[in-house]
TrEMBL record:
The gene is trmB. S-adenosyl-L-methionine binds at residues 43, 68, 95, 118. It comes from Saccharopolyspora oryzae. InterPro entries: SAM-dependent_MTases_sf (IPR029063), tRNA_(Gua-N-7)_MeTrfase_Trmb (IPR003358), tRNA_methyltr_TrmB_bact (IPR055361). The lineage of its organism: Bacteria, Bacillati, Actinomycetota, Actinomycetes, Pseudonocardiales. Pfam families: Methyltransf_4. Belongs to the class I-like SAM-binding methyltransferase superfamily. TrmB family. This is tRNA (guanine-N(7)-)-methyltransferase.
Length: 214
């Protein structure tokens, strides 16, 4: 980590973050951690926090949980959050599936966001992709009725896999089923990152999928 990232980690992690493996058994007490009752948004894979920090700042009415394995990314997210003076963010480091399975109760989330997950482009690695039938079923079970699963990717065949998996999940319905291909229009409120700009420059189409818990 950089000096600044280490400083942010030392200063903010004890209050804002925890390791998934360090959580006590049973459900995470989100209300106590945030000190309030509010809609809960979970972002899986916050990366370096470029998008996440802006989303958190734009949604002060929500309790925003970000889960990520990359320590420098979480430190950078805390630096960005400090500059934006947000207070509605908490961070978890570790496996999102373990968090969902063991520490989040059914029907406890208002939204789950997965933006530009690792595409594992080689066919033999596709099984490592996050968005699979089992993970989507688990995520759907943790959403409240009417809760939203929002996915975005710039890899065509991963987008198609996401669509197939989500359409095959009986707990979900596509909010944009009537749109061509079932793809959601790109939400104006989702910030455009350098990563996304590069995808455009390289000629890759960004696909958004927005499904709702039945």
């Amino acid at each position: 980590m950089t000096v600044g990232q280490q400083r942010a980690w030392d200063r903010y992690w004890p209050e804002l973050g925890t390791e998934v493996t360090a959580l006590p058994e049973g459900p995470l007490d989100v209300t106590s951690w945030f000190g309030r009752t509010a809609p809960v948004v979970l972002e899986i894979g916050s990366g370096m926090g470029e998008t996440t920090s802006q989303l958190v700042a734009a949604q002060p009415e929500s309790n925003y949980l970000a889960v990520e394995v990359y320590k420098p990314g979480l430190a950078q997210l805390m630096l960005r959050a400090e500059k934006l003076e947000v207070s509605n963010l908490r961070l978890l480091r570790g496996d999102a599936i373990v968090l969902l399975r063991d520490h989040l109760e059914p029907g406890s989330l208002d939204e789950v966001r997965i933006y530009f997950p690792d595409p594992w482009p080689k066919k033999r690695h596709h099984k490592r992709r996050l968005v699979q039938a089992e993970s989507v079923a688990l995520i759907a079970s943790r959403l409240k009725p009417g809760g939203v699963l929002h996915l975005a990717t710039d890899w065509e065949n991963y987008a198609e896999q996401m669509m197939e998996v989500c359409q095959g999940e009986s707990q979900l319905r596509n909010r944009y089923a009537d749109e061509p291909g079932g793809w959601a229009p790109r939400p104006e409120w989702r910030p455009v990152t350098k990563f996304e700009n590069r995808a455009h420059e390289e000629g890759r189409v960004i696909h958004d999928l927005i499904f709702e818990r039945i």
